[in-house]
Design goal:
By secondary structure, this protein is α+β, with helices and mostly antiparallel strands. It is built from eleven helices and 17 strands. The chain folds into three domains: 84 residues, Rossmann fold, CATH 3.40.50; 61 residues, Dna Ligase, domain 1, CATH 3.30.1490; 192 residues, D-amino Acid Aminotransferase, Chain A, domain 1. Strands 9, 10, 11, 12, 13, 14, 15, 16 and 17 form a nine-stranded antiparallel beta sheet that branches. A four-stranded parallel beta sheet has the order 3-2-1-4, sandwiched between helices. Strands 5-8-6-7 form a four-stranded antiparallel beta sheet, sandwiched between helices. Helix 6 crosses helix 7. The longest helix is centred in the C-terminal third of the chain and has 21 residues. It starts with a strand and ends with a helix.
């Protein structure tokens, strides 16, 4: 069996590594001929609008997927002429537009921030007055890891924000103080089978994910069940196939805890990397299983896992491996400021058992940041 992957970054690389034991070969397509997935699988290079190269890439593929959400929808439509693509193009199109994303969340029963869109400078000024400050202004399309957005604390700075974000269509959200950030990763098969991983707690530094802990600690079981139920509804609405992630803010008010859906990623997700070493079917393997029409694997881990992102500079491997049971995953990328170049997983029976190792790993990772 042959699986095509649009994109050849670290997610494509890890999909290829997960696919091989299942007897699935992977072919990636990326504009960069040196994309890191090429270290572990076939890599074809071409632009996103090169129909001839895309046809050669899709030829012989049993199905095709994508590893990041900025692949042009037109590219997916072109590939669909030759091979089925999962997740469906509508999921990619929705994930690329924050306004469509918010509407989908509401349709699936998820709670969201107060929001409105603005397509001009005048409309932005009016919208900010209506939503109130502080608020968060985001580009409707593009942007990730904290890019493409600003926090507006005074309404009279709306004009400056419009120009700072390049005068493109925007989404304005109320600024809600939150207690912590969680994510939910789930998988849906071609036959509609559904499974979700436990909620994961995430911590960011400078707008980039630094640390994930799963299962998230001290989460009410009712809230977890509701999140999984709404995720199931959303995936059914899209006739989704594959892995999907939704990021949430935990908000407490009046003694009640609420999850506010922030963004979704129609692909395998950074906050799910812990699944690779958690004595559970990884998100990468489950994505391959789902899109290739195989039965889904278990998503219920034993114990507690943590993932620490390595950003900027590659560590000395022995420094990481000297920490008890640390599992190092480097992506074969050259060091660069603010570049995700790997991650480390640890696993244990309880959070208390792994907390000292996580502290060591974070200190080591921050040293890598300073060296870049």
């Amino acid at each position: 069996m042959l699986l095509g992957v649009l994109g050849g970054g670290q997610l494509g690389r890890m999909l290829a590594l997960a696919a091989a034991p299942l007897g699935v070969r992977v072919r990636c397509y990326d504009p960069d001929p040196d994309a890191c997935a090429g270290d572990v699988c076939e890599l074809q290079s071409g632009t996103w609008d090169d129909s001839r190269s895309l046809a050669a890439f899709a030829h012989g593929c049993d199905c095709v997927t994508f590893e990041f959400e900025n692949v042009p929808v037109a590219t997916v439509r072109e590939v669909e002429k030759q091979s089925p693509v999962f997740p469906p193009a509508i999921a990619l199109e929705t994930g690329q537009d924050r306004l469509l994303e918010k509407r989908l969340f509401e349709q699936a029963g998820l709670r969201v921030h107060a929001y409105a869109h603005a397509d001009s400078e005048a409309q932005l000024i009016e919208t900010v007055d209506r939503i109130g400050t502080p608020c968060v202004i985001k580009t409707r399309r593009g942007g990730y890891d904290g890019k493409g957005q600003v926090v507006l604390r005074e309404a009279n700075n709306a004009k400056r924000a419009w120009h700072e974000l390049s005068g493109v269509p925007l989404l304005v959200e109320s600024f809600v103080p939150f207690e912590r950030e969680l994510s939910l990763i789930a998988v849906r098969g071609r036959d509609g089978a559904f499974a979700s991983y436990p909620l994961t707690q995430n911590r960011h530094e400078r707008g980039m994910l630094r640390e994930s802990i799963a299962p998230a600690q001290h989460v009410d079981a009712t809230i977890a069940r509701e999140a999984a139920s709404h995720m199931h509804e959303l995936m059914d609405r899209l006739a989704y196939v594959g892995v999907l992630a939704i990021e949430f803010f935990v908000v407490k008010s009046g003694g009640q805890t609420t999850l506010l859906a922030n963004e979704m990623a129609p692909r395998v997700h950074n906050s799910g990397h812990w699944t690779m070493d958690a004595r559970v079917t990884s998100q990468f393997e489950n994505h391959v299983r789902a899109i290739m029409g195989m039965p889904l694997g278990s998503t219920l881990p034993t114990g507690v896992s943590a993932m620490v992102n390595l950003i900027g500079n590659n560590p000395i491997p022995s420094d990481v491996l000297g920490i008890d049971d640390a599992r190092l995953h480097l992506y074969g990328k050259e060091s660069r400021v603010n570049r995700k170049i790997g991650h480390v997983n640890v696993h244990g029976p309880t959070w208390e058992a792994i907390a000292p190792r996580v502290t060591q790993l974070i200190a080591l990772a921050q040293t890598c940041d300073r060296q870049s």
